[in-house]
Amino acid sequence: MRDENVKKILLVEDEVITSMTLKSDLENCGYKVFTAHTVANAIETFRRENDIDLVLMDIALGDNLDGTDAALIMLGIREIP
Predict the structure, then answer these.
(1) Are 37 and 16 in contact (CB under 8 A)?
(2) Which CA distances in Å does 60 have to 19, 38, 69, 70?
(3) pTM of the entire structure?
(4) For the chain, what is the radius of gyration of the CA atoms?
(5) Is the pLDDT of residue 1 over 50?
(6) DSSP letter for each residue of 42-81
């Protein structure tokens, strides 16, 4: 059974150790956390998980696109903080 009150966060961070630490901290606070390490993976996850409540995005991602570009693409799909 899924708890409808659990907030879902998409964490976009290209540094794996940082991502793992932040994910663990957020989960310990009661959030469901999805991680993405690239812009492409972030957008794919955002499209697939249509009930994400918040996106936490690193700006400098090391891809051709940065976090700002990814955020604009996501906002074109649906509005989210």
Answers:
(1) yes
(2) 14, 10, 10, 11
(3) 0.87
(4) 12
(5) no
(6) HHHHHHH-TT--EEEE-S--SSSS-HHHHHHHHHHH----
| pLDDT tens digits, 36-52 | 998 889 999 999 999 99
Find, among 14, 76, 8, 78, the residue nearest to 40 by Cα: 14
CB 15 within 8 A of CB 61: no
Q: Residue 33's beta-bridge partner residues?
A: 9
Among 1-15, 18-32, 59-73, name the one with the lowest average pLDDT: 59-73
CB 12 within 8 A of CB 18: no
Specify whether the CB–CB gap between 50 and 78 falls below 8 A.
yes
Q: How many angstroms separate the Cα of 28 from the Cα of each of 13, 23, 24, 62? A: 18, 9, 6, 28
Q: For 14, which DSSP code?
A: S
